[in-house]
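Q: I have two molecules that I believe assemble together. Could you output structure tokens for the complex as a whole instead of separate predictions?
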Amino acid sequence: MNRLGELERAIMDVLWDNTEPLTVRQVGLRLTNRDLAHTTVMTVLDRLAKKGVVTRQRTGRAWQYQAAASRESYVTELMMHALDQAGDRSAALASFVRRVSQAEAAVLRRALARLGEIPRD
Amino acid sequence: MLPHVLLLATVALGIVPAAAALASARWPYRSPAAAILLWQALGLSWGLAAVGTLAAVAAVHDRYGVAGGALSGAADAVRAAALGFGVSAIFAVARLCFLAAALALLTLLCWVLVAASAAVLLARRKHRTLLSLLAHGDPKVPGALVVDHPAAAAYCVPGLRSRIVISAGTLDLLDPPELAAVLAHERAHLRARHDLVLLPFGALVRAFPRSRLVHKAHVTVALLVEMLADDHALRHRPARELATALLRVGVSGAGHTPSGALAAVTGADGDVATRVARLLAPNPRLPLPAQALICAAAALLVAVPVSLLLFTF
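A: Yes, here they are, computed for all two components at once.
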């Protein structure tokens, strides 16, 4: 992954680990082992805001930044998207296995048993 | 141009039962690539023939084909309208209406393709943004991204910056050889750009959302594309690993879908069972002459409307 992508991740991790909004300076201080210019942090935060994953608000003279949604809810969003696509076969993503009905799953479970395999779920 | 109208209409109407027959045929499982080619030819030929039939009614001669004739027809209509109304003017205006219908259908078909592509690109970009922030690598699945979620999911995000994604649930569910089979399957999708094969059929569903045949075509081609990727994975991995991977992920995913929600679009046993049966007890591939015949049929299907549209006979 490129440097910018890595920075975006690191900054998102900081925002996700802090529930209250942070200023650019506070984000910079919490980025451990990194010696980053104030403007770099600000640029990346602006990029993330443009992508819609970070929200910002003005308090006094400084902008404060916050993750638009929790890490867990983004993971859920990703998975819902992936599983939905598996249902409607839209071409955006290609799933290994299309979603199956309960009746179909029963057929598959029997097929696993015939192969001498135990379902692991 | 009556002969052109009849020929093009015959092609457009004849494709409907042909597609229905192809959708329920079983030989495509023996050579998915040839069958996909035939599906593409059917789709393209139908679009050309349907637009061509309407344009052929408007055509006044067949110099430069139906397209040339229809344009002359339009010019005649404008001239006739300028001269005032008579019997010939009424005919000319009627021809103009058919030409407008042909253009409207052509525009609709192109538009749904553009709209479907745009929707797909947008959804992928959003998905990739979240992946870049959330997913991480894992030595168990080299080259793939892992998302920490307990549900079993394995998929790829096609495109210029393609990704293969495996959920933590899948990592727990499958053993290393099965994971390797899944990766080989997804890599085949990405390398051969199977998403581009599916895109026009998805667009047709947008254009004709109520047509059962169009839905069936989309679903059938989607299954054939999966079989193509399965076949590719078999070059690197044993069939049994891929089969048990399919069964395990399939069984595990059932909990997330209301029962029967998909029954309407799937066959008796469902796609996954069909793929597994095909992996474990494969039928021989179609013999080469049969495959050549299918390719020739596909070429002819497209060549007939194209030559009627463009050339003088």
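A: One point stands out. The CA atoms of residues 61 and 79 of chain A lie 39 Å apart.
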